Amino acid sequence: IGDRTYIFAESFVVCLEENITEDLINKLVALNPLPVKFYFRDSAFNDDIDLKDYSIRELEALVAKNTGDDNNSYTVEFI
Question: How far apart are CA 22 and CA 58, in angstroms?
Answer without folding.
Answer: 10
